[in-house]
């Protein structure tokens, strides 16, 4: 029997077995995928996560907007998914061996009229380059896919973009490896011995209400999977709003 047929039969069996069990590391889950627009200016891909420019954030062009069932109110920002087109269900438009790993950078809103992103549906509205790595050119509609969570593999360390004003600091955290999605984040200025918890303002933007000007800044991050890393003295005391600082530390993708 054709090896490709055996492969897709295996994937289909696995997807049925794990369907609905979001979060199982080896479980393929049924979903649908579309793509949005032809404008691939990096500033258009950051969306509801607030990454602004996905290339500068370390994600490139393989990004996706997630339906509410996956987006988790912004907690999923930065998480990675391997997506394959379900060729057993759609042989006409699915590429043979088509597979892509996308980073969650945006939100696909519900329209409450039976749309693909309405809960409880799992849906990926992908960037055009990502979509056509799994589907044939000429398909302007929706394709059935299978997906699973995978570790994020990033180049370099975690990045911190400083925004805001003296008593209202926004830290946009990007290029996070490993699980990719952040559960909690803390900040510490060089004038303090204690860590201050930040709260998620929106997407990948974390807020601190302390005046941290002229202080060297350190961060501590815990991912949804429970792994924690500390980033000491990443930001020098001469920092200014609008600057991005890259650490030397990174979460393991193992």
Overview of this protein structure:
With 254 residues, the protein is mainly beta. It is built from three helices and 14 strands. An eight-stranded antiparallel beta sheet has the order 13-12-9-10-11-8-7-14, with no helix packed on it. Strand 7 and strand 8 (168-174) form a beta hairpin. The radius of gyration is 19 Å and the shape is elongated.
List the helices and strands and how they pair.
Layout: H1 3-18, E1 29-35, E2 63-66, H2 68-71, E3 80-85, E4 99-107, E5 123-126, H3 128-131, E6 143-150, E7 159-165, E8 168-174, E9 182-189, E10 196-202, E11 205-208, E12 217-223, E13 228-235, E14 244-246
Parallel strand pairs: 1-5, 2-4
Antiparallel strand pairs: 1-6, 2-5, 3-4, 3-6, 7-8, 7-14, 8-11, 9-10, 9-12, 10-11, 12-13
In a few lines, what is going on in this structure?
By secondary structure, the chain is mainly beta. The protein has helices at residues 3-18, 68-71, 128-131, and strands at residues 29-35, 63-66, 80-85, 99-107, 123-126, 143-150, 159-165, 168-174, 182-189, 196-202, 205-208, 217-223, 228-235, 244-246. It contains three helices and 14 strands.
């Amino acid at each position: 029997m054709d090896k490709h047929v055996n492969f897709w039969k295996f994937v289909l069996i696995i997807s049925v077995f794990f369907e609905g069990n979001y979060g199982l590391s080896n479980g393929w889950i049924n979903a649908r995928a579309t793509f949005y627009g032809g404008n691939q200016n990096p500033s258009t891909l950051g969306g509801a996560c607030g990454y602004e420019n996905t290339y500068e954030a370390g994600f490139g062009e393989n990004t996706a907007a997630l339906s509410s069932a996956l987006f988790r109110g912004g907690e999923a920002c930065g998480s990675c998914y391997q997506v394959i087109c379900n060729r057993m269900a759609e042989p006409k438009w699915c590429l043979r061996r088509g597979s892509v790993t996308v980073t969650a950078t945006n939100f696909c809103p519900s329209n409450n009229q039976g749309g693909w992103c309405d809960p409880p549906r799992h849906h990926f509205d992908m960037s055009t380059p990502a979509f056509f790595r799994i589907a044939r050119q000429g398909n302007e509609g929706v394709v059935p896919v299978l997906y699973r969570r995978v570790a994020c593999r990033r180049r370099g360390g975690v990045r911190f973009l400083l925004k805001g004003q003296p008593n209202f600091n926004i830290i946009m955290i990007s290029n996070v490896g490993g699980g990719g999605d952040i559960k909690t984040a803390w900040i510490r200025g060089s004038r303090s011995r204690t860590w201050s918890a930040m709260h998620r303002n929106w997407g990948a933007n974390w807020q601190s209400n302390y005046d941290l000007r002229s202080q060297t800044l350190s961060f501590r991050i815990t991912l949804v999977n429970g792994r924690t890393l500390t980033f000491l003295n990443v930001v020098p005391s001469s920092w200014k709003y609008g600057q991005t600082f890259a650490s030397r530390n990174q979460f393991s993708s193992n």
